[in-house]
Amino acid sequence: MKVSRLLLDALETFPNFVIIDKNANVVYLNESYAVLLGIQRDAAIGKPVQSVIPGTRLHLVLKSQKKEVGELMTLFDHTVNDYITVVCNRMPIFRDGQLVGAAAVTTMQNITETISRLHSEIQDIKKENAQYKKELDILMKTQHSLDRIIGTSHQITEIKSTIEDFAFSNLSILITGETGVGKELFARAIHDLSPRKLNNYVKINCAAIPNELLESELFGYESGAFSGALKGGKIGKFELANNGTLLLDEIGEMPMTLQSKLLRVLQEQELEHVGGVKPIKINVRIICSTNQNLQKLIAEGKFRRDLYYRINTVELNIPPLRERIQDIPELCQYFLERYNMQEYKNVKGISREVLELFSQYNWPGNIRELEHVMERLFIISDNKTITLKNCDFLKKRMMIPESHTLKINSTDRCETLAHAVDDTEKERILSALEKTGGNKAKAARILDIDRTSLYYKMKKLGIYK
C-alpha cells in the first residue's frame, strides 16, 4: 500500500478533518466532516473554506501563521439537526519554511454533551466520596465503642463481654437499670459493634410522646390519616431505622393497645402506616430500655407477657453507681478531660478527700448526677485541683454537718429531696397550665422547656389536663 493512500485512510479516522491551500481553498475534507456539514465533500473541494464551514477561523490562521489549540467552535450538526460545540485545533502548514496551507481537526465531538457527562460523573464521584467519608467516620467512631463505657468494675466488665458476644446477632436486647445509669450508651455500643453500624441508629422515648401520637411516630402515617397529618404522609421510626437499629427507650410506658401492634410488627417484620392498608417490609434490630420492673408491670396487667419475652432475648442490667463505687475515680477523670478540652482549661485533678466523699454518697441520680456535679466543680475550680472546699453544695445535698464524719447514709434524705423537687415542678406546671387555660404549648414556653419535656413531666408527676 502506498504511503499517500495510507495517510488518506488515516485522515478518515479523525472525527472532522479539513486541509486548505495557501489561498484558503479546501483541498481535503474527510467524510465525517462532510456528513456533519450536510454536504457532498467532492462539492467542497476548491471552494473557499469560509463558504464550506460557517464560522471557521482556518483562513485567519493563514494570515497569523500561528496555531490555535483547544479552541471552541459551534457548528450545526446535520446528523442530529442541532448545534453542537466542539474543541478544534488549527495548524499552519509549512514546507521548507514557506507557508503552503493549513489544517484543522476536532479533538472532542460535541463538548456540551461531554461536559454534561463529565459533570454527571464528577457528581457521582462526589456522592461516592461523601458516602465513603461517612462510612469512614462511622468506622472511626465505632472502632472503640466499648471504650466509651467507662469503668473496670466486674459488673461493667461482664456487661461489656456480653455485648461483644451478642452485638453481631439480630437478637432483641432489653437494657434495664435506674435513671441516669447510661442505658443509651450501652445501646449505642451494641449498634456500633453490629454489622448494622453503617446504617441508621434511631431512638425514641416512649414516655416523652403523648399516647395518641406514639403510634404514628413509630409506624408512620398516610396523608389525611388524622387531623393535622402532613400532606403526603410521613414515615415512622421503624422505617427510618430500616436495616439499622431502633432503641425503644422507656418501653414500660407504652400503652397496652400499642404493645399488641408492636408485638405483631416484631414477629412479622412488617408494618402498616396509620391510615394505610399496604404492608411494608422492614429489617430492624430492636433494643429496648426501661427503669421500671417489667415483671411487676406484667403482674399488674400493664405490660404484655408475650411482648416481654419477645424483647427480652438478652437482658443487660446496668448497676447503679452506688454498686460500682470503684469506677468513680475513672469516671471523674473522664469528665475532667472532656471539660478541659471543651473549655480550654487545665484543671489538674481531683483530691483524694473528694473521691472519699464521692464514695460515701448514695448517688440517686447515678452517673448523670456525677456528671453534673463534676461540671459544677470544674467551673468553680479555676484551673486548680478540685478539693473538699469546693464541695460545700454536695455536703448540703448529703445533709452532712461541716464537722461531721464523712461516713453517712443519705438514702432517705435524698429521696425526701427528690420528692421536694417533684412537688415544686408539679406546682409550677399546674400554675402554668392554669394561666394558659390548659394550652400545653403556651405552658411549655412559660416554663422555658420544650413541649416533649412538658408531656414527659406531666406523665411522670400524674398531671392529666
UniProtKB/TrEMBL annotation:
Molecular function GO labels: ATP binding; sequence-specific DNA binding
Domain Sigma-54 factor interaction span(s) in chain numbering: 149-379
Annotated SUPFAM superfamilies: Homeodomain-like, P-loop containing nucleoside triphosphate hydrolases, PYP-like sensor domain (PAS domain)
Coiled coil: 108-142
InterPro entries: AAA+_ATPase, AAA_lid_NorR, Homeodomain-like_sf, HTH_Fis, P-loop_NTPase, PAS, PAS-like_dom_sf, PAS_fold
Signal peptide annotation: none
GO biological process: regulation of DNA-templated transcription
Positions of the PAS domain: 17-47
Keywords: ATP-binding, Coiled coil, DNA-binding, Nucleotide-binding, Transcription, Transcription regulation
Designated name of the protein: PAS domain-containing protein
Species, as recorded: Coprococcus catus
